[in-house]
UniProtKB/TrEMBL annotation:
<keyword id="KW-0540">Nuclease</keyword>
<feature type="region of interest" description="Disordered">
    <location>
        <begin position="736"/>
        <end position="768"/>
    </location>
</feature>
<dbReference type="Pfam" id="PF00575">
    <property type="entry name" value="S1"/>
</dbReference>
<dbReference type="InterPro" id="IPR004476">
    <property type="entry name" value="RNase_II/RNase_R"/>
</dbReference>
<keyword id="KW-0269">Exonuclease</keyword>
<comment type="function">
    <text>3'-5' exoribonuclease that releases 5'-nucleoside monophosphates and is involved in maturation of structured RNAs.</text>
</comment>
<feature type="compositionally biased region" description="Basic and acidic residues">
    <location>
        <begin position="9"/>
        <end position="26"/>
    </location>
</feature>
<dbReference type="InterPro" id="IPR003029">
    <property type="entry name" value="S1_domain"/>
</dbReference>
<keyword id="KW-0694">RNA-binding</keyword>
<dbReference type="InterPro" id="IPR040476">
    <property type="entry name" value="CSD2"/>
</dbReference>
<comment type="similarity">
    <text>Belongs to the RNR ribonuclease family. RNase R subfamily.</text>
</comment>
<dbReference type="InterPro" id="IPR011805">
    <property type="entry name" value="RNase_R"/>
</dbReference>
<keyword id="KW-0963">Cytoplasm</keyword>
<dbReference type="InterPro" id="IPR001900">
    <property type="entry name" value="RNase_II/R"/>
</dbReference>
<dbReference type="InterPro" id="IPR050180">
    <property type="entry name" value="RNR_Ribonuclease"/>
</dbReference>
<feature type="compositionally biased region" description="Basic and acidic residues">
    <location>
        <begin position="736"/>
        <end position="745"/>
    </location>
</feature>
<keyword id="KW-0378">Hydrolase</keyword>
Length: 768
């Protein structure tokens, strides 16, 4: 065996002193060769290795045989003309930055799978004083990588060479071929102009394709030109409309091959580290078209004599952490997606179907791993105690909300009849008790109906409905809220890092704006630093059944802060809860998976718990998943707008009943309650007066008449124009303005408010 050689000098693995002592017949050991290749990834060709060890003649033939043996054994792989350790990062690699360590250093994983097992972690070095933007979490970069050879910490360091940025000048559009043979780009954004494409810049696009184009500088005359950069897919198929939102919002929707391979290789969980709960008749209650079921419930009376009238409520949640381990390809992809995205015509899942719809879905009659919480409530709805358990369960029944409600209402079917007395009625009895606690807590109770779009087989809109809000919905919602609270309380008590679901109180500025608005309606909102949801509920109760009920609910909603994820707890204002964490939907939300891992680690429930590295990065992860949630909401909203616009495109010139959903100085936004469609009425089209914007009263009123339009007014409108793929709709107002108090006219004249952008009646033309 060759002697141990340490140190390097200009590519030679030996120091000068060592080289002087080595005899001509010296041959390095296999370990020395492998160490050199790892430390010199950019000088790891056969000639480089021979030169580094000063091998000549027959020794080079010997080296060639050794290197071939190492490749045959699967220890080395050849990339171009360089050799590399199997499972090692190439010297230049594409990396995805996912977080920071405790010292704030950026950390990354390779974007492509490297060997088997967990991917290596790369510590990103950022040169100080360098030009160009600095990399950050979520960026994809090209970097040179260097092994650290340290027992702990990241296996590599990386020096960023390039940040891959999304083209800021590229836009999406629909490629159209006109009758005269010319090419146009139909816009998919409301403020995007139509574009012309010359034949030499068609780039293989066909009529109806969704394309990414680069607009050219606009000319003084005619439409601006563009060239096609990429063809993203055809819009002639079903699910075409949601594809626009997927690309526009950069939502990952195709699972990489290594993620699919990893999901297919997963083995079903066993009873190891689990309690056997398969005899407990837990049931799932979900929408009728649900494909994955991540929560199951059961309830019974508390037999403890010290808790008369109390109940024991049990919630079991799919044990996703059993299959999706930190640092794996599955985990990296789930974090990148952050959550599932739900469109009317498709779902873009956070996890592959093998995980979400099979191994983790709590299917009826099949063994499934779960993380369960058993909660004890007093008769007045106070939670007395709770405990978490890692279990194997078997769902006793898969029910739809309407099906479960019908059974309680006296119309059971073949499935609900046998479990009505033993399972369903105890659940409703428990909900009655939990509702007492909710009523005492007084969370914010906004009354804003949610609409659902039903599609035809071809993916177009069939109709829009407002589903009934059943007690079955409220039961599941309250059970899930209590389970989420229990998770946050347990992790806090164990001093385990977690991601909270937080919701701040309305800002002082929004409070004051709301207060001024309510004063215009003769309503008051008390001042004070400590706002409570009950104060808003009092306002909502006073307008219940009144003409302005919808208006007040809408304005109160707009005054609220946006909920988000954070490792720092500021409570949840809307639910009026001191601590709250998402635990009940790990199949579709990464935040819940983090909480599951935290519980497993804190309670010693077996493998798959939160690691120290993961805990150190929770602040960055919280920012990332808060962003993916907002991205999903925007994409879902845009898709609904486009579907409804396409549905209404055949009804131009029709009249509709509408409600004013927004007021700006440039015009009115109106919504068709029947469809949930939003459109715009430019202020320039409001005839008969010169309209002034009243921000406080959310209204436009005529300078001369004092009559106008206010947020939530019910009006009649005519559909004038529709741009389906942009989701843009323009209406014309048919309802005359209503009288507004003279005090508003005096107020605005005295203050000299800015006027709406419209020419006076009788002047030469209108601004559009």
């Amino acid at each position: 065996m060759a002697r141990r050689i340490t140190g390097r000098s200009h590519g030679d693995p030996r120091t000068a002193d060592t080289r002087a002592k080595v005899k001509d017949d010296y041959r390095p050991s296999r370990d020395e060769i492998l160490r050199y290749i790892a430390e010199n990834p950019d000088r790891a060709g056969k000639r480089d290795i021979a030169k580094a060890f000063a091998l000549r003649g027959d020794d080079r033939i010997w080296l060639k045989d050794i290197l071939r043996d190492l490749q045959d054994e699967g220890v080395l792989t050849r990339e171009r003309k360089q050799l590399a350790r199997v499972g090692a990062l190439p010297h230049v690699a594409v990396l995805d930055i996912f977080g920071r360590d405790g010292d704030g250093i950026l950390l990354a994983h390779p974007s492509e799978a490297v060997g088997t097992g967990e991917p290596p972690v790369v510590s990103i070095r950022v040169s100080r004083g360098g030009s160009g933007p600095a990399p950050g979490i979520g960026d994809r970069v090209l970097a040179k990588t260097f092994p650290t050879n340290e027992a702990t910490g990241p296996a590599y360091t990386g020096r960023v060479m390039k940040i891959f940025e999304k083209r800021s000048d590229a836009v999406l559009g629909i490629f159209r071929i006109l009758q005269d043979g010319t090419f146009r780009i139909e816009p998919v954004e409301r403020r995007q102009p139509e574009l012309i494409v010359d034949k030499e810049f068609q780039n293989g696009a066909r009529n109806g394709d969704l394309v990414e184009v680069e607009p050219a500088r606009a000319s003084r005359y005619g439409l601006p030109r563009a060239k096609v950069l990429n063809v993203l897919g055809s819009l002639t198929s079903e699910k075409a409309v949601s594809m626009i939102a997927i690309h526009a919002h950069d939502i990952p929707h195709i699972f990489p091959a290594d993620v699919i391979a990893e999901s297919e290789a997963v083995k079903p969980a066993t009873l190891d580290h689990r309690e056997d709960w398969r005899d407990l008749p837990l049931i799932t209650i979900d929408p009728g078209d649900a494909k994955d079921h991540d929560d199951a419930v059961f309830a019974t009376s508390d037999l403890d004599g010290n808790n008369p009238g109390g109940v024991v409520a049990t919630v079991a949640i799919a044990d996703v952490a059993a299959y999706v381990r930190y640092g794996t390809a599955l985990d990296r992809e789930a974090l990148k997606r952050g959550n599932s995205v739900y469109f009317p015509d498709r779902v873009v899942p956070m996890l592959p179907e093998r995980i979400s719809n099979d191994l983790c879905s709590l299917r009826e009659g099949q063994d499934r791993p779960a993380l369960a919480v058993r909660m004890v409530f007093s008769a007045d709805g106070r939670k007395l105690r709770h405990s978490f358990h890692r279990v194997m369960m078997k769902s006793a029944a898969k029910l739809a909300y309407q099906q479960a409600q019908a059974a309680i209402d006296g119309v059971p079917d073949d499935k609900t009849g046998p479990i009505l007395d033993t399972v369903l009625k105890p659940l409703w009895d428990a909900y009655a008790i939990l509702k007492r606690g909710r009523d005492g807590r007084q969370p914010l109770e906004l009354d804003l109906p949610e609409r659902k779009i039903l599609l035809k087989p071809d993916g177009t809109v069939d109709r829009v409905i407002v589903p009934d809000r059943l007690d079955a919905h409220k039961l599941i919602e309250e059970f899930m809220i209590q389970a989420n609270v229990a998770a946050a309380e347990t992790l806090e008590a164990k001093k385990q890092a977690l991601v909270y679901r937080v919701h701040d109180a309305p800002s002082l500025a929004k409070q004051e704006s709301l207060r001024e608005f309510l004063q215009t309606l003769g309503l008051s909102l008390a001042r004070g630093a400590q706002m409570r949801p009950s104060q808003f509920n009092g306002i909502l109760e006073r307008v219940r059944g009144a003409d302005n009920e919808g208006l007040v609910n809408e304005v109160v909603l707009r005054s609220q802060s946006q909920a988000e994820y954070s490792p720092k707890n500021i409570s949840h204002f809307g639910l009026n809860l001191k601590r709250y964490a998402h635990f009940t939907s790990p199949i579709r939300r990464y935040a819940d998976l983090i909480v599951h891992r935290g519980l497993i680690a804190a309670l010693g429930l077996g493998p798959g718990g939160l690691t120290q590295d993961e805990a150190a990065r929770l602040e960055d992860v919280a920012v990332l998943i808060s962003g993916t949630e907002r991205r999903a909401m925007a994409a879902e909203r845009d898709t609904v707008d486009r579907l409804i616009a396409a549905y209404l495109a055949e009804r131009v010139d029709d009249r509709f009943d509408a409600r004013i959903s927004g007021v700006t100085k440039s015009g009115l936004f109106v919504q068709l309650p029947q469809y949930g469609a939003d459109g715009f009425i430019p202020v320039s089209t409001l005839n008969g007066d010169y309209y002034i914007y009243d921000e406080t009263a959310r209204s436009l009123f005529g300078e001369r008449s004092g009559k106008g339009y206010q947020l939530a007014d019910r009006v009649e409108v005519r559909l004038v124009e529709v741009a389906p793929m942009a989701g843009a709709i323009r209406f014309e107002m048919l309802t005359d303005p209503k009288p507004l108090p003279d005090s508003k006219r005096s107020f605005h004249k005295a203050k000299g408010r800015a006027r709406a952008s419209q020419s006076r009646p009788g002047s030469r033309g209108r601004r559009r």
